[in-house]
Amino acid sequence: MLGAATRKEITALRDRYPHPRSAILPCLWAVQNEQGFLTVEGMTEVAEILHLVPSEVQAVSTFYSMYFQKPAGAHHVLICVNVSCALRGADDIVGHVERRLACPSGGTTADGAFTWESTVECLGACGGAPAMQVDHHFHENLTPDTVDALLDRLRSVPGAHAGAGATPSGPHPPTAETPPLATAEGPPAGAAPPTERAETPGPRTGTTANPRGPRSRPRRRPRPSPDDL
Ligand code: FES
């Protein structure tokens, strides 16, 4: 049985949209925030409140990789392996993380601190490749050293979701308790210069400015004229 606060939140989400079906995603976040993963019972309660059949809610939950179908670690790490990141060393980062966490992609560390995956196809952070997402925060321009620093720090920080090794985080969207490696003013003193930006799953409550300004395109080389050939 979901808690009263979560049921109230789901009811409010239902009433926010013209059709209750539109509230499925944020409702699933609410369940995951409370329970650590999406239990069948929790999704059934969501369906009841939204006046939908349970299979409709469950079908949505299995479509997105950010929803857990089983208990997960306190921190969720997603490493992009698509083209931009692959060209800038994503495979090396994946290998490094696998050795460092001592469990394969899709697994959870023995201490329950991390669940990680390297099957993500583009996080939308191509300009900062190689990139990964940790508890809904982006970390870009990764190197093995910056990954190590981040993982070390996260071990002592509560996770974004309830569940194994984590503490409840309050209202969704999940707010990672991870202090940024870098800010708009620049990286902390003595730190390598990875960049981080927060992603806010669920209903957007405002726009997030990119502290780096608009993304720039690489300058094209001028085409040779026929006289040069
Ligand atoms: S290819 Fe990695 S973020 Fe787009």
Provide key terms for this protein:
229 residues; alpha+beta; Arc Repressor Mutant, subunit A; Glutaredoxin; 2 domains; five-stranded mixed beta sheet; 5 strands; elongated; binds FE2/S2 (inorganic) cluster
Task: Give the arrangement of secondary structure elements.
Layout: H1 4-16, H2 24-35, H3 40-50, H4 54-63, E1 75-80, H5 83-87, H6 90-101, E2 114-120, E3 132-134, E4 137-140, H7 144-154, E5 195-198
Parallel strand pairs: 1-2
Antiparallel strand pairs: 1-3, 3-4, 4-5
Helix pairs in contact: 1-2, 1-3, 2-3, 3-4
The chain binds FE2/S2 (inorganic) cluster.
Residues 80, 82-85, 122-126, 129, 131 line the site of FE2/S2 (inorganic) cluster.
